[in-house]
């Protein structure tokens, strides 16, 4: 794939624009640090004006080679990160919590503003007089 990209004068930015996959993804795929996804491979074939069938056959061979005896799914794993999704930490649970005092202060401020506006609308409070 890298040779076809170079022969056609395509940059990583060109591939990103033509395929809607990021520059970083193309860099990982073309460097061999990760296996390209089948959908990205098809998008590459269109962008590079290539027949996707031989590319898919090469991808299947690469998948088979990378999974032989290693128990991986064909894509390299980020170092230290478990491969199976169920073993990975759920980063959504790592959200920052807002201090309860700030929530209370914000709610009190909003309530005060609402009461002041209602009283002003009813003519009880007079601002600037």
Write the layout of secondary structure elements.
Elements: H1 2-7, H2 12-19, H3 23-31, H4 38-47, H5 52-67, H6 100-122
Helix pairs in contact: 2-3, 4-5
Task: Please provide a written account of the structure.
The chain has 129 residues and is mostly helical. The protein is built from six helices and no strands. The chain has helices spanning 2-7, 12-19, 23-31, 38-47, 52-67, 100-122. Helix 2 packs across helix 3 and helix 4 (38-47) runs antiparallel to helix 5 (52-67).
For the biggest sheet, the summary is: none
The strand count comes to 0
Q: What series of H and E elements makes up the topology?
A: HHHHHH
Structural class: mainly alpha
- Helical content stands at 55-70%
Span between N and C termini? Answer: 76 Å
Radius of gyration: 28 Å
Highlighted features:
129 residues; mainly alpha
């Amino acid at each position: 794939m890298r040779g076809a990209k170079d022969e056609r004068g395509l940059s990583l930015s060109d591939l990103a624009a033509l395929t809607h996959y990021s520059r970083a993804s193309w860099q990982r795929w073309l460097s061999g640090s990760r296996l390209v996804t089948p959908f990205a491979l098809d998008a590459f074939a269109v962008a590079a004006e290539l027949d996707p069938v031989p590319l898919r056959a090469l991808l299947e061979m690469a998948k088979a080679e990378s999974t032989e005896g290693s128990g991986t799914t064909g894509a390299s794993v980020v170092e230290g990160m478990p491969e199976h999704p169920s073993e990975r930490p759920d980063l959504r649970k790592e959200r920052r919590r807002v201090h309860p005092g700030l929530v209370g202060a914000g709610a009190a401020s909003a309530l005060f503003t609402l009461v002041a506006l209602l009283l002003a609308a009813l003519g009880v409070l007079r601002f600037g007089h």
